[in-house]
Amino acid sequence: MRFMIIRRADKDTEAGVLPDEKLLAAMGAYNEEMVKAGVMVQGEGLHPTSKGALVKFHQGKPTVIDGPFAESKELIAGFTLIRVKSREEALEWLKRWPSLDAGGNVELELRQVYEDDDFGAEFTPELRAQEARIREQGAKNR
């Protein structure tokens, strides 16, 4: 099972405040522990929304809205993708998040990633093969 750990944005991440050396070291140790345990797939921090854009579609027509965005409680500052055996195992990893982050007041969200088998018969063998090709090419693009 794959899960995404979503690190919510706060006033500091939206202001572009970068982590200090202590937090970088703590996050590095946490990430290294997950890698050694064989659960971490990927993890990245995100620039603030002031450097981003939002694309909204209305009746199929896109409108681009440049950041920053007002509701920081719904914004994402970073993510980690993990592969574990259960939701409970994923939650145990979240509970180990470095307490230095955001002065101990960080908000994390856990979301399960859909797997091919979750889509049922509608995900035909042809569509599964296409998805496999896309993932293979995407891995080469990294």
TrEMBL record:
<protein>
    <submittedName>
        <fullName>YciI family protein</fullName>
    </submittedName>
</protein>
<dbReference type="InterPro" id="IPR005545">
    <property type="entry name" value="YCII"/>
</dbReference>
<feature type="domain" description="YCII-related">
    <location>
        <begin position="1"/>
        <end position="107"/>
    </location>
</feature>
<dbReference type="Pfam" id="PF03795">
    <property type="entry name" value="YCII"/>
</dbReference>
<dbReference type="InterPro" id="IPR011008">
    <property type="entry name" value="Dimeric_a/b-barrel"/>
</dbReference>
<comment type="similarity">
    <text>Belongs to the YciI family.</text>
</comment>
